[in-house]
């Protein structure tokens, strides 16, 4: 499929999910007890050693895919350590040589389950200055609402991580639902259209080339 022929999101859900408030409110008060997977604990421990030794801003690029966005964010934030996290080794292994470390920024790519990684980061008292969630899997079928990050049990930990959270998607309902979840958590935030002369992820470039638009939210969390 060419970059200029990216399919639009197809969903049986015309607006915010009817059970979104109920789901989010449940997760905001429940304790998330799922055990931490050993491979994510190991990966986190290695990265945490770098984070604790680093004297500068920490930035998270969650669902980083092939890591192009991570490298670009490192260039945008040259004084920071940018950590790109994705559950897929297949995607991370595609990290092209052109994105590799340069003098314009430093970053780490790590394979981990974010359901575990975010909780470990909160427990370790990480305080990222920025947290990017750029084009996560939208799970557009209504029955999969709890697979979306704002509908998942781990959502409160995204809030607890703090920093400037930025979410982008080519599906406006995803961002509007995320904004509603943040509102329920006490952080109302507007949803706006987003465009730039430069795409920083492969998906962003593909969507724009095929005429799709991006929506985003940006919120400062404590």
Question: How would you describe this structure to a colleague?
Answer:
- Strand 4 (130-134), helix 6 (155-161) and strand 5 (163-169) form a beta-alpha-beta unit.
- A seven-stranded mixed β-sheet has the order 3-2-1-4-5-7-6, sandwiched between helices.
- It is an alpha/beta fold and 222 residues long.
- It is 35% helix and 18% strand.
- It is globular.
- The chain has one domain: Rossmann fold (3-Layer(aba) Sandwich).
- The protein has eight helices and seven strands; from the N terminus they run H-H-E-H-E-H-E-H-E-H-E-H-E-H-E.
- Helix 1 crosses helix 7 and helix 2 packs across helix 5.
- It has helices spanning 20-29, 38-53, 68-76, 89-92, 114-123, 155-161, 172-184, 202-209, and strands spanning 58-62, 81-86, 106-111, 130-134, 163-169, 192-194, 214-221.
- InterPro entries: SAM-dependent_MTases_sf (IPR029063), tRNA_(Gua-N-7)_MeTrfase_Trmb (IPR003358).
- It catalyses: guanosine(46) in tRNA + S-adenosyl-L-methionine = N(7)-methylguanosine(46) in tRNA + S-adenosyl-L-homocysteine.
- Catalyzes the formation of N(7)-methylguanine at position 46 (m7G46) in tRNA.
- One of its GO terms (molecular function) is tRNA (guanine(46)-N7)-methyltransferase activity.
């Amino acid at each position: 499929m060419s970059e200029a022929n990216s399919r639009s999101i197809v969903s049986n859900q015309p607006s915010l999910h009817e059970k979104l408030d109920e789901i989010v409110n449940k997760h905001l008060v429940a304790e998330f007890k799922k055990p931490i997977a050993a491979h994510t604990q190991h990966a986190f421990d290695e990265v945490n050693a770098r984070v604790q030794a680093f004297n500068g801003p920490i930035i998270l690029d969650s669902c980083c895919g092939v890591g192009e966005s991570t490298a670009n964010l490192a260039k945008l934030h040259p004084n920071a350590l940018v950590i790109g996290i994705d559950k897929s080794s297949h995607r991370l292994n595609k990290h092209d040589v052109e994105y590799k470390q340069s003098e314009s920024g430093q970053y780490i790519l790590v394979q981990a389950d974010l359901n575990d990684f975010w909780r470990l980061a909160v427990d370790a008292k990480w305080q990222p200055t920025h947290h990017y969630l750029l084009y996560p899997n939208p799970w557009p079928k209504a029955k999969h609402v709890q697979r979306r990050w704002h509908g998942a049990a781990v959502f409160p930990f995204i809030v607890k991580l703090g920093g400037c959270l930025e979410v982008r998607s080519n599906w406006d309902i995803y961002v509007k639902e995320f904004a509603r979840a943040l509102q329920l958590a006490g952080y109302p935030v507007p949803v706006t259209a987003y465009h730039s002369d430069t795409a920083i992820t492969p998906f962003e470039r593909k969507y724009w080339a095929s005429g799709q638009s991006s929506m985003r939210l940006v919120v400062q969390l404590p």
